[in-house]
Amino acid sequence: MKRFIDLKIGIIGGGQLGKMIAQEAKKMGLFVTILDPTPNSPASQIADKQIISDFNNEEKIEELVNECDITTFEIEHINTEILKRLGKDGKNIFPTSRVLEIIKDKSRQKEFLNKFNIPTSRWKRVNDNGFIDKDLGFPVVQKACRGGYDGRGVYIIKNKDDIENRLKTESFLEEYIDFEKELAIMVARNRHGEIRCYPLVEMVFDKEENICDMIIAPARVDENIYKEASEIAAKCVRALNGIGVFGVEMFLTKDKKILVNEIAPRVHNSGHYTIEGCVTSQFEQHIRCIAGLPLGSTELIVPTVVMNILGEKNHYGTADYIGVNEALEIPGVSVHIYGKKEIKPYRKMGHVTIVDKQIEKAIEKAYRVKNVLKAISKEA
């Protein structure tokens, strides 16, 4: 049996999530190879090696898996057929191709949730002639089956006139939920079946772009909501037989019901607070899960808020940052820059964590950070 220190970890995807997984793997002394189409991707700045390839290239994915003892991923939209074949050959790929196939098609996710009696919103498959449904009514949410992330692949049809602007792709309709809060919880499950939930958090979204803007940990909800959400999230991961860290996004309705919105089979933006806020970060926990190590503590050390650093509107080109000094003058602030070379409007360029013994003070500081710290283009 190979010594832990000699393990080689492969990561499909070289973005910020891959970078932060790689950082934890390197802290443990492990060799890391990533696969990503972008030379000098964020994760390549940390990893020992990068294979430059798109996420559907079977030959390159096989090369990565064969070079590594354990392979994982930071993105869903990859070739699952080659992962399935390599998994059958005994390669260690976590989460498995089965989990990835269920999750990356959002209609299959909904079928999975229904099958295991996990509470979720009502939904229906549609075709081009089926965008009016008497049961779901208006407004109704159209979701792309594949490819949507960071608010993309979702369109709210408010009335008949909106139908002509619908997403022109394979999709389904979902009941519009007039929710009180959007919540999320990270769940870790290792190769031995040990499972632990992180604290429940609130997600605040940018209304203009429908992209997550702020994470508040812990969520400001009653203890019974916290307990029920944790039980539902753990049920999701057990039902998937998932190995790794998973992000489970939820709605809290105005009548205090919890509905699962979506599951991410990987570390997630809503878990970034764990780096400064918890005993074990989601990224270290993910390495523990896939390597068969004992799970670390998920205890929240201090209330934490995460503010995403998004590319400024109308900014394209070489990335630059202003207000870093001013942000770091605020007590409890830590700045994480992902190392993406090119900026686009609303692209996730980094995040800031703010810790404080009082959550409301942390939120207040987060808005101060938002006012001074900006991701811009040098050419602007």
UniProtKB/TrEMBL annotation:
ATP binds at K106, K143, E174, E175, Y176, I177, E182, N261, E262. Pfam families: ATP-grasp, PurK_C, RS_preATP-grasp-like. GO terms for molecular function: 5-(carboxyamino)imidazole ribonucleotide synthase activity; ATP binding; metal ion binding; phosphoribosylaminoimidazole carboxylase activity. It comes from the Bacteria. One of its GO terms (cellular component) is cytosol. One of its GO terms (biological process) is 'de novo' IMP biosynthetic process. Pathway: Purine metabolism; IMP biosynthesis via de novo pathway; 5-amino-1-(5-phospho-D-ribosyl)imidazole-4-carboxylate from 5-amino-1-(5-phospho-D-ribosyl)imidazole (N5-CAIR route): step 1/2. The keyword Protein biosynthesis does not apply. It catalyses: 5-amino-1-(5-phospho-beta-D-ribosyl)imidazole + hydrogencarbonate + ATP = 5-carboxyamino-1-(5-phospho-D-ribosyl)imidazole + ADP + phosphate + 2 H(+). Keywords: ATP-binding, Decarboxylase, Ligase, Lyase, Nucleotide-binding, Purine biosynthesis. Its EC number is 6.3.4.18. InterPro entries: ATP-grasp, ATP-grasp_carboxylate-amine, ATP_grasp_subdomain_1, PreATP-grasp_dom_sf, PurK, PurK_C, PurT/PurK_preATP-grasp, Rudment_hybrid_motif. Residues 110-291 form the ATP-grasp domain. Homodimer. Belongs to the PurK/PurT family. Catalyzes the ATP-dependent conversion of 5-aminoimidazole ribonucleotide (AIR) and HCO(3)(-) to N5-carboxyaminoimidazole ribonucleotide (N5-CAIR). Catalyzes the ATP-dependent conversion of 5-aminoimidazole ribonucleotide (AIR) and HCO(3)- to N5-carboxyaminoimidazole ribonucleotide (N5-CAIR). This is N5-carboxyaminoimidazole ribonucleotide synthase. The lineage of its organism: Bacteria, Bacillati, Bacillota, Clostridia, Peptostreptococcales.
